[in-house]
Amino acid sequence: MYIAMNRFKVLPGAEAEFESMWLNRDSKLKEVPGFVEFHMLKGPEGEGHRLYSSHTIWESEEAFVAWTRSEAFRAAHGSAGGTRPLYDGHPNFEGFEVIQTIAGDA
């Protein structure tokens, strides 16, 4: 399993627009081979921003890399940034290979 994360430092006052952009997008992730699960996380307020993180689980790093090289990826990210800046700088990408999973009973 592979986890791909992007951290966003969302500018003050842009939180609602940022969340709306994510919540109302036409995601095609369920159609992508190797996709398992997606979460958009809302984190704490920092100095001059609120932290958000997209958290995507893939069957493998290879499946994630194939997604990033696909036409579907380009279409999904074609309008990134919109008409005004919503976050400070570029998203910070972090990729992790899962070495252990402990699941709950629920």
Automatic annotation (TrEMBL):
Domain (ABM) ranges: 2-96
Family annotation (Pfam families): ABM (PF03992)
Keywords attached to this entry: Monooxygenase, Oxidoreductase
Keyword Lipid biosynthesis: no
InterPro entries: ABM_dom, Dimeric_a/b-barrel, Heme-degrading_MO
Single annotated GO MF: monooxygenase activity
Keyword NAD: no
Gene3D superfamilies in the cross-refs: 3.30.70.100
Name of protein: Antibiotic biosynthesis monooxygenase
